[in-house]
Design goal:
With 326 residues, the chain is α/β, with parallel strands linked by helices. 43% of the residues lie in helices and 11% in strands. It has a single domain, classed as 3-Layer(aba) Sandwich (Rossmann fold). It is globular.
Length: 326
């Protein structure tokens, strides 16, 4: 992979910048939701930033990315402009999905970002299909598919893994294991929480790492991506992480103690990486303040863009719809 073709320039400060962008974007989205400028569902990525930044930073611009409903971080890390993401949350026609998808359906073909799908596990066969096509047509691209650990309990997961293993599809499945499938602890949804057994049963290579430690994510994901690309076969990478916010803005969060959340915040991936960079002499308090200020300005510009953008007119509602006489 050439430097010019990478999605994210492999620079330590750039990694931190991307994680901070995602975190500050999500925090601003919370405020806007409270002001009713963002409506509907909103699934936030706070706490999982190292996963998106670490994995996507190792992909090329030609590689495809597909995700589920908690995908703001994936979209931003993939290069989708904050303006377009924010406008989509506002339901404006300048959004990356023309305001028709909202938080759960971000899409940007120019970045090979294929969503954002709201059905748990519904995107897995799509990922397998895209990877199968690449293998059949002898293309160099791979497909990166993000999923939550809750999808592992779905039948469609096993169907997709079976075909991926059978067809040797060049797809990287990244399981973001944040311990709670929506509001249900992992221990009550899986009879066996050993993900390696599931991978082995379908002949798929497997690895897991600490998803709160960006350096571990970078190392493990690079090996996984290289394996998929070199051997043209699937790989399951489990990254153990934790979401700091509730499942969605409608979630009363009665399934876990606040003390548990606060304990996990001690391992905040941004905090850990910031400390690491300071120890390495790469980052100072002043440069961190400047970086945060620049990010906040970029986000405010995105908010202004969204607020000033137009909604689709009534005569555009049926655009892109196909009718049949069935």
């Amino acid at each position: 992979m050439t430097l010019a073709n990478s999605r994210l320039i492999p620079d330590q400060l750039n990694y931190l910048n991307q994680m901070l962008l995602i975190r500050r974007f999500e925090e601003r989205s919370i405020e806007l939701y409270g002001q009713e400028k963002i409506r509907g569902f909103l699934h936030l990525y706070n706490g999982e930033e190292a996963v998106a930044v670490g994995v996507i930073g190792g992909l090329t611009k030609e590689d495809r990315i597909i995700s589920s409903y908690r995908e703001h971080g994936h979209a931003l890390a993939a290069g989708v402009e904050p303006n377009k993401v924010m406008a989509e949350l506002f339901g404006k026609k300048t959004g990356c999905s023309r305001g028709r998808g909202g938080s759960m359906h971000l899409f940007d073909l120019s970045q090979n970002f294929f969503g954002g799908l709201a059905i748990v596990g519904g995107h897995l066969p799509l990922a397998v299909g895209m990877a199968r096509a690449d293998r059949y047509l002898k293309r160099d691209q791979i497909t990166c598919c993000f999923l939550g650990e809750g999808a592992v309990a779905e039948g469609i997961f096993h169907e997709s893994m079976n075909l991926a293993g059978l067809w040797k599809a060049p797809v990287l499945f990244v399981v973001e294991n944040n311990l709670y499938a929506m509001g249900t602890p992992l221990t009550t949804t899986l009879a066996d929480g050993d993900f390696s057994i599931k991978a082995k049963s379908y002949g798929i290579d497997f690895q897991q790492a600490d998803g709160m430690d960006l350096n571990q994510v970078l190392e493990s994901s690079r090996k996984a991506i290289q394996s998929v690309r070199n051997f043209s076969r699937p790989f399951i990478l489990v990254l153990n992480t934790y979401r700091f916010r509730a499942h969605s803005m409608f979630d009363a969060e009665l399934y876990r103690e606040k003390s548990e959340v606060e304990k996990w915040k001690l391992r905040d991936p941004i905090l850990l990486y910031t400390q690491y960079l300071k120890e390495q002499g790469v980052l100072t308090d002043g440069s961190l303040t400047n970086m945060t200020s620049e990010i906040d300005l970029k986000i405010e510009q995105a908010v202004q863009f969204a607020e000033q953008s137009a909604e689709e007119s009534l005569d555009e509602i049926t655009t892109y719809l196909t009718y049949t006489n069935a």
